[in-house]
Amino acid sequence: MKNKLLYTGLVSLVVALGGFLMGFDAGVVSGANPFYKDYFGLNDWALGWSVGCLTFGAMLGNALAGTLADRFGRKAVLSIAALFYSLSAISSALATDFNVFIVARMLGGVAVGLALLIAPVYIAEIAPAKLRGRFVSFNQLNIVIGFSAVFFANYYILKLAKADGIGFITEPNCWRWMLGAETVPAVLYFLLLFFVPRSPRWLAQHGHEEEALAVLNKVVSSEEATESLRAIHEHIAKDKQSKPKFSELFSRHMRFIIFIALGLGFFQQITGINAIFFYAPTIFEKTGITQESAFMQTIIIGLVNLGFTVLAIYIIDRFGRKPLLLIGTAAMAICLFTNAWAFHSATYVLTEEVVQELPADVSEALVPMVGKTYHSQSAFTDALNESGAADHGEALVNPSMNISARLVLFAIIGYIAAFAISLGPVMWAMFSEIFPNRLRGLAISLAGLFNSLISFAVQYIFPWELSTLGPAGTFLIFGIFATLALIFTIRFIPETKGKTLEELEEILIRK
Questions:
Q1: Which residue, among 149, 157, 58, has the nearest Cα to 110 in the 3D structure?
Q2: 464 Cα distance to chain centroid
Q3: pLDDT by residue (tens digit) across 420-445?
Q4: How many H helices and E strands in the chain?
Q5: Burial class (CB in 10 A: 0-12, 13-18, 19+), 28
């Protein structure tokens, strides 16, 4: 039996490498965007589009994932995603035109949309019920490993770019090396998928009964394999009575399940996780620290994310989905409100050293502001505008801020930890569990598409929020949504641990 669990675990880890590439592809932009922003000459909205276009592409991948997976198989779709990841990494790293860069990033987004939905579905269909939550969480684990790995890679590439004697890696072109580094794991993923079997449920649905039984025999005992295949065939027989239709997702029977799925998809992203990950160095630089220190702090939050995701995998099948959501969303709200308070309490003092680095005509106009304390970012920027230094506002705000950078770091660490044990892995685990077999492909696509749409909106608006509302207002909004997520969990989320997919279908479908 241990050999069967080991085999299932290895297959699940290989499939979940799609999550690693998603984390790597998404996280790399946090380090690269300050440099390609200068290269392409981007404003706040264009920068938001360059970051959010990955998720925009993911929406297309989400929309296609279920249909493609049901027709061609889970494994085939994952192989296509691996190929797209490779092409995206190479073409975005070599781009000299902003439009070409956007298309390349969107191609990677399509890969994200395909892999992010189909990998957990595949794992759920091959894993034994009692360990399904843990194995499905491998996907989330690989996402955070990808995030952590890319933070290390970005920091190391930046160090090389700043070092003397490294002629082919410079600060102006280091973003190309950051983006291109993804090619290596993408090609490896494509090759490893050749050793992964096809999903037993998909095989049974398409008449490959012997192959389906052979796969099931590799992951459970022969008796359990026979019983699982029998249960699958029972549901296939029911499914054949009518072809799945998109309109069925909004029928009276499915309404509660769809409401749960869309709610989880909404709150996972609206609470700001990808905005913080994708703009982490920018957020930390807002506290007045150096660029290199900001990159180092992204490594810290990456490691925290990894550690608490591992913890979630260990406890998700012991404590259940709902308790983790309750603890996590409550802690997220507290940490987000803490950051809002920290930035709201910050003061701004313009020093002579900072002013002297500006052109003579600008520095003279700013003399009346030197040494004066401003109690909000808006008051400080208004004073800059009145002095005629509006064009230098971005360069002056960060070094003039007096704030507890340590408190901001600890609050973000707490937020990341809380997300990593709750909305991060639990949403994907529940997506793979709550939908009936016959409608799973369509339902997963809908929920994933909605989740990506919210993520895109948050990423696209975030640079404008930072510059217009300031960090305090931005974190306050995220904190309010985290509080609403807690209320949603208390009121609506059911517990799904320890039940087979067929049992959950009987429980959740409203008669």
A1: 58
A2: 20
A3: 899 988 887 888 777 877 777 778 77
A4: 25, 3
A5: buried
Give 391-420 as a DSSP string.
GGHHHHHHHHEE--HHHHHHHHHHHHHHHH
- The model's pTM: 0.73
CA dihedral defined by 80, 82, 86, 92, rounded to 10 degrees? Answer: 80
Q: Tell me the C-alpha distance between 197 and 120, whole Å.
A: 15
Name residue 302's amino acid: G
- Encode pLDDT of 165-217 as tens digits: 466 788 888 889 999 999 999 999 999 998 888 877 777 777 777 777 777 77
**Is residue 323 a contact partner of residue 487, using CB atoms and an 8 Å limit?**
no
> In Å, what is the CA distance from 318 to each residue of 6, 45, 123, 134, 315?
20, 44, 19, 10, 5
Q: Are 128 and 224 in contact (CB under 8 A)?
A: yes
- Which amino acid appears at position 138 of this protein? F
Q: 237: how many CB neighbours lie within 10 A of its CB?
A: 9
Helix, strand, or coil (residue 379): helix
Of 183, 193, 232, the residue nearest 212 (C-alpha): 232
Orientation angle between helical segments 183-192 and 17-40, nearest 10 degrees: 160
Percent residues over pLDDT 70 in the chain: 88
Length of the chain: 511
Give the CATH fold of the 2-196+242-302+425-470+482-508 domain.
Growth Hormone; Chain: A; (1.20.1250)
A 10 A CB-CB count for 292 gives 13
Average pLDDT over residues 7-29: 84
| Conformational region of residue 107, where left means phi above 0, alpha means psi within -120 to 50, and beta covers everything else | alpha
Domain boundaries, the chain: 2-196+242-302+425-470+482-508, 348-402
